[in-house]
Amino acid sequence: MSENAVETYVRPEFENKDLGKALDVDVERPLSVFERIANINAVRKFSILLGLLFAWEAYTRLSGVEPLLFPSFSTSAEALWETILTGEMPAKIWVTVKILLVGYAAGLGCAAVLLIWAVLTRVGSDVLATLTSMFQPLPAISLLPLAMLWFGLGASSLVFVTIHSVLWAVALSTHVGFMGVSETLRMVGRNYGLRGIPYIFKILVPAGFASILIGLKVGWAFAWRTLIGAELVFGALSGSGGLGWMVYEKGENLETTYVFAALFMVIVIGLLVENVIFRNVELRTISKWGMQR
User: Fold this and answer.
1) CATH code of the domain covering residue 163
2) How far apart, in Å, are the Cα atoms of 79 and each of 70, 73, 172?
3) For the chain, what is the domain count?
4) CA–centroid distance for 243 within its chain
5) 94/246 Cα distance (integer angstroms)
6) Alpha helix (H) ranges present in 192-208?
7) What is the distance between the alpha carbons of residues 17 and 28, in angstroms, rounded to a whole number?
8) Does 11 map to a domain?
9) What phi, psi does 226 have (nearest 5°)?
10) b/e string for 1-14 if b means 16 or more Cβ within 10 A?
């Protein structure tokens, strides 16, 4: 054997035939009825809501707090049912929701125009980045006095502040999602000859839909709370309005139970939109596509 030869070591084969039976290992087992119910998202959230309502009722009954300051859930529920039967609550809800839908749709339209410009041109991207840096931190409710000067005491002022709430949140989140799309997907689109708007809707939108959906949810939350807050001021000036005006009006008359009834309805509508509309969109898109657990 030469001096440069290297001796090769061959490991002997080994097979363990005495592994025994695995103990205390739950590889697969049928779920109990309680576990199957607990796995339902709606049931878990509804249980939390019931717990909060029970704590509310128990606190007001056991603490002896003055009902004028903090009414119980049962009395607030009675006031809510009364306003539903008289038609006052549905009318207030419709006024607020109608303005919200108009402002939300207009805000999404403005955001779409800015985003298309930002994706197609470098100038548009710079403009969008600058505008979002300027207006995103600006509270929409602070623009209400100017909106009243520009558009008068009408629904247009409320629509304006709602658009401001939606526009920058949706534009910023969507633009971040577009920027995070991998270069591989971008090249696939270009190889298929996609340019302009078809490139945006067939490549960027599906790939960045998780960020888009976050922007839609944040924009909705901003718009809803801004509109309710604006109605507190706008209703006081014009003598009419939706849920926000109802809170202000009942509070001025010291009808605290009706104030809590209106606030409870604001919360319920928010929960319904979040857990019915947006949740179903998530299940049918990003969860189905494997983009979210």
Assistant:
1) 1.10.3720.10
2) 14, 10, 41
3) 1
4) 20
5) 13
6) 196-199, 205-207
7) 25
8) no
9) -65, -40
10) eeeeeeeeeeeeee
Range of the domain at 83: 66-284
Show the DSSP H helices in 87-195 as ranges: 88-120, 122-135, 144-151, 155-179, 183-191
What pLDDT is recorded for position 167?
A: 92
- Whether residue 262 contacts residue 84, with contact meaning beta carbons closer than 8 Å, is answered with no
- Per the domain annotation, does 37 fall within a domain? no
> What is the predicted pLDDT for the residue at 104?
93
All residue ranges of the chain with pLDDT < 50 are none
Q: What does the longest C-alpha to C-alpha distance in the chain come to?
A: 107
CA distance 251 to 261: 11
The Cα 26–Cα 28 span in angstroms is 6
Amino acid at 124: G
Cα–Cα dist 99/109, whole Å: 15
Copy the structure tokens of residue 161.
Answer: 């502040």
Let me know if residue 206 belongs to a domain: yes
The pLDDT assigned to 19 comes to 66
pLDDT number for residue 25: 60
Task: Write the single-letter amino acid at 234.
Answer: F
Residue 53 domain-assigned (yes or no):
no
Strands (E) in 76-199, as ranges, are none
